[in-house]
Write a structure and sequence with these properties.
By secondary structure, this protein is α+β, with helices and mostly antiparallel strands. The chain is built from 14 helices and 18 strands.
Length: 530
């Protein structure tokens, strides 16, 4: 009997963003959830017009504390590398999720849902959720002693709000380049949006921290009232930890806050801590900082500005902010009018293409062995995480899954685990049928309604599944693929493995091994596709 094995040595795990679960589903029941299977959920686009279109903002504003990206792109766009590739800072950034953090419709809906379920915590939600998604607006309003909200007729999302332009810039130039190294970066005191930007009476005293020690800033200072200042922290992972280690408070079923300190908050995302516990940390065997992967350096040297003179620089990091969220970028492109985005669709297309190419290096899938014994095709599949953090990482609505297909000699599918439906749900995955259940972690898969899904499932104070962030106190399941060097036995509680994966000896630093057992006849050959 012949076995035809199809192997893709650089295959990206199928990445799926559960875009509706956290917004549409409330808390689970108070019954401890049982992992199970089901046929999936429906869905579809209902059309526009539910909410008014968002306004287009001005990126050319000058504020007392921050300025828009337009003040920077006047000199830092139209840049090319030695191969004449466009590496303009503003162009690269404009189609990234950083630039569109405030227009992200998933974030907008999620914040609204959390406020709807816990209106008594509206003030805390408006503050916490805008701190990293609309940081300039949040911080400028606080410095000015002005209270604010995100939604509403005069909220940050409305052009009626005086900080609207600040908000719609998302995570922009003069926020990242003004965050100071106050000794708390990379610590619990400095994460969750607890960045520090000094307030200056004289705008010309405002720094723009950068990686070059011999910066000549006279022209930039005259044009923008920001002075380029060297600071090593801008190139460290700790500068990213400010928002990518993020903890949120927890409430019980009665709405009472049960977390009384930052240490007891729920670890919503801990990307920095995952990295710090991997071989990619400073001093690790594969040392790389966040910027090395997500802001890759341009080859050779180049001019960083089109005005004001200056010298050619090496080791320039592109402001592409590479990442996995091409689903959201596609939505931003397709609904640009509704979301108030004034950007050429081609720029989103280019960014999406870059990100998809980037993701090809996130993991490898290898068929270790495949053999037939006693009328059963037994295939061992090894998944290796090449990222410097868990895969997937970030907000816990993200998931990756393994698709495994067996066809016979005439191309008929005789077994398929992980089939993606047209509506984005997965055949056989429990969560896609009933949001109070979740798919367990598997060591061995023997049925099509068993799917290996790498994900984090939030649990509430009653140890039931929850899709409400404020109700989350811990993870019922966290089998996201571990980075190389990660010790799941000694990992801190905030990033520990949860669920069946904790006892799976093949789920370890750098990846996972799954065994598939498929009944077969003794006639013909079989093709295995992973």
């Amino acid at each position: 009997m012949e076995i035809l094995t199809t192997l893709r040595p650089k295959l990206l795990l199928c990445l799926s963003a559960v875009l509706l679960a956290a917004c549409s589903a409330g808390d689970g029941s108070n019954t401890t959830p049982t992992p199970g299977q089901g046929p999936g959920i429906g869905g579809g686009h209902e059309g526009t017009g539910i909410l008014p279109d968002m306004a287009i903002h001005s990126s050319a504003f000058k504020g007392d504390h921050y300025s828009g990206s337009g003040q920077c792109t006047s000199c830092h766009n139209n840049l090319t590398d030695q191969s004449n590739n466009d590496v303009s800072l503003g162009t690269d950034w404009s189609s990234s999720m950083m630039a569109n953090a405030t227009r992200d419709p998933y974030w907008i809906a999620k914040v609204a849902a959390e406020i709807d379920r816990h209106p008594e915590l509206k003030g805390e939600l408006d503050d916490t959720c805008s701190r990293c998604h609309a940081p300039m607006a949040n911080d400028a309003a606080k410095k000015d002693g002005v209270t604010f909200e995100i939604h509403g007729e005069n909220g940050l999302l409305s052009e009626n709000n005086p900080y609207f332009d600040h908000a719609m810039e998302g995570v922009s130039c003069t926020i990242c380049h003004q965050i100071e190294d106050n000794g708390k970066l990379g610590t619990i005191e400095g994460d969750s949006g607890n960045f520090s930007v000094q307030q200056y009476e004289n705008q010309s005293d405002r720094p723009a921290f950068g990686p070059y020690a011999d910066a000549s800033g006279a022209y930039m200072l005259a044009q923008s009232q920001f002075n380029p200042v060297y600071s090593a922290h801008i190139t460290t992972s700790e500068s990213c930890a400010v928002c990518h280690d993020l903890r949120t408070p927890s409430v019980d079923g009665a709405g009472h806050v049960v977390s009384d300190s930052a240490e007891s908050f729920f670890p919503e995302q801990m990307v920095y801590s995952e990295w710090k516990n991997s071989d990619f940390q400073v001093g690790g065997s594969q040392e790389k900082n966040c910027q090395s992967c997500h802001m890759p350096e341009v080859e050779g040297s180049m001019m960083l500005a089109t005005e004001g003179g200056g010298i050619e620089r090496e080791n320039f990091s592109r402001h592409t902010f590479l990442g996995p969220n091409t689903v959201m970028q596609t939505m931003l492109k397709n609904y640009s009018t509704e979301l108030g985005i004034e950007l050429e669709p081609e720029l989103f297309d280019e960014s999406i293409a870059r990100n998809r190419e980037f993701l090809k290096g996130a993991a490898t899938v290898d068929i270790v062995s495949s053999a037939i014994k006693n009328d059963e095709l037994v295939t061992k599949v090894k998944i290796t995480n090449l990222a410097g953090h868990k895969l997937p990482s970030g907000y816990p609505s993200r998931r990756a899954y393994l698709r495994f297909v067996v066809t016979n000699s005439i191309g008929e599918v005789i077994f398929e685990s992980g089939r993606l439906r047209d509506n984005g749900s997965l055949e056989g995955v429990a969560t896609d049928t009933l949001t109070t259940k979740y798919e367990p972690h598997y060591e061995t898969i023997t049925s099509e309604d068993q799917v290996q899904v790498y994900e984090a499932i939030m649990g509430n104070t009653d140890s039931a599944v929850t899709h409400t962030l404020l109700r989350a106190t811990h993870y019922l399941k966290d089998n996201r693929l571990l980075p190389a060097g990660f010790d799941k036995q000694s990992a801190p509680d905030d990033i520990k493995v949860a669920g069946f994966a904790a006892s799976d000896s093949d789920f370890d630093a750098g990846g996972d091994t799954v065994v598939y057992r498929v009944p077969v006849s003794d006639a013909g050959g079989y093709n295995v596709l992973v």
